[in-house]
Specification:
alpha+beta, Butyryl-CoA Dehydrogenase, subunit A, domain 2, 2 domains, 7-stranded mixed β-sheet, 1 helix, 9 strands, 15% helix
Length: 164
């Protein structure tokens, strides 16, 4: 792995995957021995770690904290399947896209889509290791529970008013 998070770093996990084209990861052609051409990602401490030649391109939706996070763990599609990558978010070629998600109930979450263009990335774990782990798909139930709770509160208020 890479270095441990440092003071002042703010990490996000961006793993949403709606239908349609999204974020892709590719390994860059490397040396004659077939190794990937490495790149470097720096931690806030200045410590460098090699990215092994992986690059991200495309758009990732629903990136909460896009303007305040310094790093993110991001799922992206590879030729072998979906994989998690660590990325430093101050790299040239990373752009939060204004107005891409109008989250009225979550306006303070700062969750726009983010565009990536040839961004160095460090693979984390194995292909499918993050999203195929037990419990990952159940995480969405928390969002549904919030909506159900909100809808129930509105319905209870309306029913109480109708009974008066």
């Amino acid at each position: 792995g890479g270095p441990l998070p440092q003071d002042g770093e703010r990490w996000a996990v961006w793993a949403a995957q709606p239908p349609g084209p999204g974020l892709t990861a590719r390994e860059t052609p490397g040396s004659p021995a077939g190794e990937s051409a490495p790149g470097t990602v720096r931690a806030a401490s200045g410590e460098a770690y090699e990215t092994t030649g992986w690059r991200l391109d495309g758009v990732k939706p629903y990136c909460s904290g896009a303007h305040i996070c310094t790093h993110a763990l991001i799922s992206a599609d590879t030729a072998e399947g979906r994989r998690l990558f660590a990325v430093r978010l101050d790299a040239a070629g990373i752009s939060p896209l204004p107005g891409t998600w109008q989250a009225v109930g979550m306006a303070g979450s700062d969750s726009p889509d983010v565009a990536f263009s040839d961004i160095p990335a460090l693979p984390v774990g194995t292909v499918g290791g993050y999203i195929d782990r037990p419990g990952f798909q159940h995480g969405g139930i928390g969002v549904a529970a919030c909506w159900l709770g909100g809808a129930r509160g509105v319905a209870d208020t309306l029913f109480a008013a109708a009974r008066r």
